[in-house]
Write a structure and sequence with these properties.
By secondary structure, this protein is mainly alpha-helical. It is built from 15 helices and 4 strands. It has 3 domains: 169 residues; 43 residues, no CATH class; 225 residues. The two termini are 48 Å apart.
């Protein structure tokens, strides 16, 4: 799942940048923007639903007997159906069931990810059709990005409906027969999604931009929209421990749900507590496919703005732009190589990511991103906080135990919540400082357009 988030983030960013979404420039409402944003959001929602339904999951709880049947009855009694292929293990005082996939109570919920994928393919076809109408896509691109996604959506819906009809009560039966055509259809559709930015013709941008200028006073979006993505990211960071507690501990019951990528070690209970030292960290959340897709969704649009937030008019501005793009790649690697893959490699990537965040706070300040006259005090404070939080996160990774422990009680039920607070602060402040800078640039452009003479409408 981490690799899916990392690999497809690059073509998705390119897809939206071609549609002039994100960055310092003014934003315009258009069909191209609507279909592009819809495709991106549906892509991450598909990953979320797929990770929730299709990824392996392990249920651990105090043993209610010595046999599999006795513990199976208890798990069914608390509302957890047992799918085919479940593995049972007993390690007193705990019993564990490892499922090859999650088994919801409502059969139709088992196919939600297929419905979301079909909607995503429909959005991709509509987006590509808009490029085609503007002569930005050739015949080959139309086949790959319009015809094949529509075919992929049709096959997915058809086989999903057939699977629901034939296996509504036998979840998991005839898996290969039903999964192979769906997997092939999804691979074909995702190929079109990956290649659309490469097949786009840049010559069509001139005509499209003229249309935008002609409609600028009607279609220009307010700059305040740029502040929504960081607020969503900060809200997600703040509520993630509570979301984990309710869904991973099944609302304070004795059953603990572990959905990490590697379930081979039965002694690890998973996020948010580290299996090594018991501390809470963002890395433990990223180790779960569901939370990796969730963080990828809420952090995608702040990253999109960060990739194109520098003016590049001076040496320091160019350095800030280089650090911004390097930080985006580092964050992708942070998700692509989770703790289960290689703990040492993941910690090295974490240190690099936090160092880049600290360096970018400095370049933002030096390049003038944090000293704009109207909100200079707020942005200076945010940059300083980002620098301090990044250095604290680096210290916690390089020298474990170098800082005092922080107990957050039931909010983060771990021995130390300091790493979680520091890492969340780094990413939250990173999104907030970037978005405020982008907001001020768009606001200045909006004020400038408002002061233009009405004759500009005749363009």
């Amino acid at each position: 799942m981490g690799w899916m988030v990392a690999l497809y983030s690059l073509p998705l960013v390119a897809l939206l940048r071609i549609a002039d979404v994100g960055g310092r420039g003014p934003q315009y409402s258009s069909r191209l923007r609507t279909t592009g944003v819809t495709t991106v959001v549906l892509f991450y929602l598909w990953l979320l639903c797929g990770a929730w339904m299709r990824a392996p999951v392990r249920y651990s709880f105090p043993a209610h007997g010595e046999t599999s049947e006795e513990n199976m009855e208890y798990l069914r009694a608390v509302g957890r159906p047992i799918p085919p292929g479940a593995e049972f293990s007993l390690s007193p005082p705990y019993a564990t069931f490892t499922f090859p996939f999650r088994h919801p109570e409502h059969p139709i919920a088992r196919y939600v990810d297929l419905a979301v994928f079909s909607l995503m393919m429909t959005g991709l076809a509509a987006h590509a059709a808009t490029h085609r109408s503007a002569r930005g896509l050739g015949r080959g691109g139309a086949v790959l990005c319009i015809l094949l996604p529509c075919l992929s959506a049709s096959v997915t819906v058809s086989f999903g409906a057939y699977s629901y009809y034939r296996a509504a009560t036998a979840w998991g039966a005839r898996t290969l027969l039903h999964a192979l055509p769906i997997a092939m259809a999804q691979a074909v559709g995702l190929t079109g999604l990956a290649f659309l930015p490469l097949l786009h013709s840049p010559e069509s941008g001139v005509t499209y931009n003229v249309d935008l200028v002609r409609k600028s006073y009607v279609n220009k979006l307010t700059p305040g929209r740029s502040l929504v993505p960081p607020l969503v990211a900060i809200f997600t960071f703040a509520t993630l421990p509570e979301v984990f507690r309710r869904f991973s501990f099944l609302a304070d019951s004795d059953v603990h749900v572990d959905s990490r990528m590697d379930l081979s070690d039965a002694d690890i209970l998973g996020a948010p507590c580290s299996a090594v030292d018991g501390t809470a960290s963002l890395s433990s959340y990223v180790d779960s496919p569901f939370y990796a897709a969730l963080l990828g969704l809420v952090f995608f649009f702040p990253l999109l703005d960060m990739c194109a937030s520098s003016e590049r008019i001076s040496g320091c501005s160019k350095l800030d732009a280089a650090l911004s793009q390097s930080l985006c790649f580092a964050l992708l690697m942070f998700v692509a190589f989770p703790l289960s893959y290689d703990a040492a490699l993941h910690r090295s990537i974490s240190v690099l990511t936090f160092l880049l965040a600290a360096a970018r706070a400095v370049t933002q300040f030096s390049a003038g991103a944090c000293v704009m006259s109207s909100v200079d005090n707020v942005q200076v404070v945010l940059c300083v906080l980002q620098l301090v939080a990044s250095l604290v996160a680096v210290a916690l990774e390089v020298i474990p135990g170098s800082l005092p422990t922080l107990h957050l009680g039931g909010y983060v039920p771990c021995t130390d919540g300091f790493p979680w607070v520091a890492e969340s602060a780094v990413f939250g402040l990173l999104a907030l400082t970037t978005s405020i800078h982008v907001f001020m640039a768009r606001h200045a452009d909006f004020i400038k357009d408002a002061a233009r003479p009405k004759a500009a409408d005749l363009l």
